[in-house]
Amino acid sequence: MPAAAKRSSRAVASRKRDADHSLTDRAYAKLEELIVTLQLAPGEIVSEAELSAQLRIGRTPIREALHRLARERLVNILPRRGIVVSEINVGAQLRLLEVRREIERLVARSAARRASDAERDRFSGLGKAFEAAARSDDATAFMRTDREFNDLCLLASHNEYAASTMTLMNSLSRRFWFIHYRQAADMPLAAKLHAAVARAIAKGDARSAAAASDRLLDYIEEFTRSTVEAA
Length: 231
Description:
Four Helix Bundle (Hemerythrin (Met), subunit A), mainly alpha, 9 helices, 3-stranded antiparallel sheet, 3 strands, Arc Repressor Mutant, subunit A
């Protein structure tokens, strides 16, 4: 095969891989939101075919997204039985928070030290978005801002090991929040605590970012324990 034809073939293959990756990311984002917002409820059994038809995305990207969600413990894949959305357990959530506190402090401190100028500008904007969600008491806006904030923290920390650990916990934490916040949470306060972390990272103040992260986790742990009383 001539060199030009080989280069063309490689370019086509590369574009196909990028398109497949994009579809998987899209499938993951949609499925994660459905699970976190309880549109796919804990204990619900679903199938690749049903999800593919519902989201209008091919079964291969759906399958790859489901395997990613299984690694994050949002679904359980049971051979010959289907896919089950995982149940929610307060005890497990508290154990998750033990790990999350330590990793999130590290991530906040690292992001404050290592974020680029563009990332700091975005953290500043997210701080304002959190404050706006607090003023309007808008839970949906808060959830979407929180997801972008989590992703940016992991990117700006430049620590792939911390990022991979936090990725396993973020969606579980958002889902637990969503199912209980109406009964036990102070959403405006949670948004303000997130805003404080974002502002500290934007300023490059690692010590303040770590302290703000601890205050946020103090509140989240208090909230988690209060769900037992609210039940």
